[in-house]
Amino acid sequence: xxxxxxxxxxxxxxxxxxxxxxxxxxxxxxxxxxxxxxxxxxxxxxxxxxxxxxxxxxxxxxxxxxxxxxxxxxxxxxxxxxxxxxxxxxxxxxxxxxxxxxxxxxxxxxxxxxxxxxxxxxxxxxxxxxxxxxxxxxxxxxxxxxxxxxxxxxxxxxxxxxxxxxxxxxxxxxxxxxxxxxxxxxxxxxxxxxxxxxxxxxxxxxxxxxxxxxxxxxxxxxxxxx
Length: 226
Ligand code: NI
Prior knowledge:
Elements: E1 3-5, H1 11-22, E2 27-28, H2 35-40, E3 41-42, E4 44-45, H3 51-66, H4 68-74, E5 76-79, E6 83-88, E7 92-96, E8 101-103, E9 110-112, E10 115-120, E11 128-129, E12 132-136, E13 139-143, E14 150-154, E15 159-161, E16 164-166, E17 168-178, H5 183-202, H6 207-223
Antiparallel strand pairs: 1-14, 2-4, 3-7, 4-6, 5-17, 6-17, 7-15, 8-9, 10-14, 10-17, 11-16, 12-13, 12-15
The chain binds nickel (II) ion.
């Protein structure tokens, strides 16, 4: 399932990040790509261990911590430190799948990539192209969100970024290991959680609130790996 997470960052936060990122030194994006992805990847990145990546990454993580939609949709166990990329002057990333297991350079800890995230840091009217294309069993989805908004999609999906022909597309990107590995199970829990939230809001006294909440937690207890 492809899920939009609105307003992970405020416009003010995006603006401050962009000022710092626009003044920074970028490197060739192929440094973090596996062999297949290297052949099709043309963009720039902030080095993973650059102090600015860490500083701005912490702001992204704080934004995620505030987002109830993110918690419900991702059921995060571990979040890979957010990184930053930039596409301009025809840069693009052809169809590829993200590496399944990533290792943190800092601690050596390994993360299974269940979900991939792109947090947009440029408004759509400021660049042409740069759509994120995600393929799933229902076909192709094209995603281009307002600055500060994020998309989550299963890391099992083939995906691409179309060439940026005007302006620059700056984003944060990272991966999440979820407590629930299976996308179909995670989607069921997200749908159920949303239904419970609506029911609890409209009919707080209804006995089905406690019953469905119990079903939610008992499913999560069965499916979660910690
Ligand atoms: Ni990718």
